[in-house]
Write a structure and sequence with these properties.
Mean pLDDT: 86
Radius of gyration: 21 Å
Helix content: 40-55%
Largest sheet: 3 strands, antiparallel
Number of helices: 5
Number of strands: 3
Structural class: mainly alpha
Distance between the termini: 57 Å
Shape: elongated
Strand order of the largest sheet: 1-3-2
Low-confidence stretches: none
Strand content: 5-15%
Length: 121
């Protein structure tokens, strides 16, 4: 059992090490494409949110979430979240779920298709 445990838990297999090297040093086309897609989707969502009176949202350079400030709207955020879900089939999370500093914010994910993001805004 110790020999099996060492090989499974303690050591990274040779083929896994070679795959990691290839992933880090090989062509990054797929990664570049994914980053471009997320950037475009971020812009669709955040530009759309910023077009809604009372919402303000900055563009994050490294996330697939938008954290929109809705404090100027002065409405019940939980009601907004419920209506977004039941009416537009959009799931949102109140910023307060992430602590006191998140109060007044709404978190939305832009890991979706361009078409869905444009349709929901």
């Amino acid at each position: 059992m110790p020999k099996i445990q060492e090989g499974i838990v303690s050591c990274v297999s040779t083929f896994t090490q070679k795959a990691a090297i290839e992933a880090l040093t090989g062509p990054q086309t797929a990664v570049d494409d994914m980053v471009a897609n997320y950037r475009r989707r971020r812009d669709i969502l955040i530009d759309g949110l910023n077009g809604i009176p009372g919402f303000k949202c900055n563009k994050s350079p490294g996330s697939f979430y938008a954290f929109a400030n809705y404090q100027r709207v002065r409405k019940d955020l939980y009601g907004i979240c419920r209506r977004a879900h039941s009416g537009a089939r959009v799931v949102t999370v109140p910023g307060s779920a992430f602590g006191k500093m998140g109060e007044g914010y709404l978190r939305l994910v832009f890991a979706n298709s361009d078409e869905n993001l444009e349709k929901k805004l």
